[in-house]
Amino acid sequence: MRLLVINLIKDPMFAGCQVATDYSSIVVTTKKLDLGPADRKQGKIEVIDPTFPPFQGLDNAQAQEARNRRTKGYELSKTGEFSLADLVRALQATQAGAWFEGQADVIQLLNIVISKTPNDTANVYSLGQNKYYPGVGSPLMEQVDITGGLQALRGYFASVRTSSNRILVNLNVASAAFYKAGPLMNLVSEFVGGYSGQAPRPQDLVRAEGFIRMLRVETNYLKALDANGKTKMDAQGRPQTVPGLKSVVGLAPRPRDGDARTVTFSWSDPKKPQAAARNISVFEFFKTQHGITLQHPELPVLNVGTRSDPSYLPIELGTVLPGQPVRRLLSGGTYRSLNPYYIAEFFSRSS
């Protein structure tokens, strides 16, 4: 949903006004949008991740199919107009029982408005609607390693509330646990008690399956193609690649926890349209189709598709993206490390 909204507010209908959003169901603008006579507009938009480079390959049926998958429908409708001045007048009223009927709505919109700057700032991670953490690449980043492939980031909590005769913005220090960015293999090794750079064992990956489930990882093995379908080269003569984004569903389901040599799938060679489909192992596929000889074929492969329609990725080809909070129950020691008093001590030691 967040990507859909990011792409939607780039539409020309939003030109000439300031826009803030909760990236879910509410868009706040500084002027009325032209949504038609019924103040309602429906349409479709291609959802593109702005952090990825634009597509430059062949505009063929496969590319069109990908565009169709990325195209989503939306509906915009006007829900009301709100004035901050009305809220201020109600707060300044001297008569008993003075009340502004739209107060709760205006407070909600103000919370969305104050979130605009951190949401628009690169390398700031939002957790919920009101918590923000400067991350990798930000000069304001403050972090300490905790345990098991995690790090604590210090940020802040911001919220708008009303008081007698005034509107207040409440700011508090906040801390949260995030997954460490970097090679997924390193994360698994640290989770099981090893060190970064140490190759995990097959049983380590099985143990870490729940820990890495639904993590977003980046891949960089797909070759970038020019308009003629040939691999593009960089200044050093090396093949250029196109980054991809995957979500880890779990480990290979068939066979359960299978490695790159035992997990197979039905595959048809696109260069031979008349050839019959055949079973190919994950190891052979990456070697023959991408020129990659896996260094750890003994490790279980990841399922980055769905449970009913799995798609496979060797763990050594995945890189954990930054800014992913831990949404599972933390161990006692890790949770204690996130206690504000311990966090303050950790950060004072690291500064």
From TrEMBL:
InterPro entries: ArgoL1, Argonaute_N, PAZ_dom, PAZ_dom_sf. Residues 187-322 form the PAZ domain. One of its GO terms (molecular function) is RNA binding. Pfam families: ArgoL1, ArgoN, PAZ. SMART domains: DUF1785 (SM01163). SUPFAM superfamilies: PAZ domain (SSF101690). Gene3D superfamilies: paz domain (2.170.260.10). PANTHER family: EUKARYOTIC TRANSLATION INITIATION FACTOR 2C (PTHR22891). This is PAZ domain-containing protein. It comes from Aureobasidium vineae. The lineage of its organism: Eukaryota, Fungi, Dikarya, Ascomycota, Pezizomycotina.
